Amino acid sequence: MWKPSLNTAIRFILPLKTRGKLCGFLSIILKINHVTLKYNTAVNHILVENNQVIGVQTITDTYPCDAVILATGGASHPQTGSTGDGYRIAKELGHTIIRLRPGLVPLVVAETELAKSMMGSSLHNVRLTAFQLPAEAIDPLRVPSRDTGRGIKGPKPRLPVIESRFGDLMVTHFGLSGLIALEMSLAIIDALEYGPVGVIIDLKPEISKQELISRLQQQFRLHGKRNYQTIMQSFLSHKMIGPFVMLSGIPAEKTANHINLPEVERIAGLLKSLRFNIKGPYSMSTAMVTAGGLALDEIDSQTMASKLVKGLYICGEVLDIDANTGGYNLQAAFSMGWVSGEEAAK
Description:
Radius of gyration: 26 Å
Shape: elongated
Structural class: alpha+beta
Largest sheet: 6 strands, antiparallel, barrel
Distance between the termini: 20 Å
Helix content: 25-40%
């Protein structure tokens, strides 16, 4: 059912040297087991008679069989052949398809000019929190002190908090990417169905706002003749300084000894709550995984066999299963592939 060549299929997950060796090894294994690969042969339908698989129909031919493994992947990364055909095929056979959404995907913000001005900024050890509120309506005091949300052990967040994570983030020309943005993306996408979603970034999550005010005041006292923009080099990465100064509304050349307490509090507030409104995901084709898919209650989890059609086995991302980054999605696909292969071979 795979459209591209074997080499094309594995080049997305392996380096060149390993890829060549693996291709050779797989070719030997396939030959020993009398397996024939049909390249560039799109599958149109799985043929069923009396609720039993009897064959596979491709664009050029029909192949009789009594067992089929549907392992077509999701709808993301279409360049690998994963174009969503499996959902259509499964639906034709009576299976339920849960709504598809991009998972582990960058987020597009409404404040595109601000994002562009910060483009390329790598933010380390920050806290990103998503709220079921417009960004300007978020109360920073509602930001959780620990990670909470989808897939995180412990108490679940209460609205308006959707999810909160500590880690690394990147600002792009369109919005937010990086590990914590990707991991929070699906919860945010689902929340957008119910209303606006705003996020705030705590650039200094390990200290309180009051502690941050004290540190700022100390810097301004020690370096009273330096200008505001120069002093912010101690608090922000280079690409963030200009946009941050603009957001604060304090002149960049204002000397530290002329910055008053309300201005210090404003700077601290911005460092603790940089805000963006989320418009949506970047695109399905840029998502690392596809969320949604074939309903899991229609599959025998012990064998990966369809409960609706005898001889049909289904595995991988075509199912309604997705996980965080870290190899979990690959491991799920490999494990389900092994089980379905063993069971179909019986």
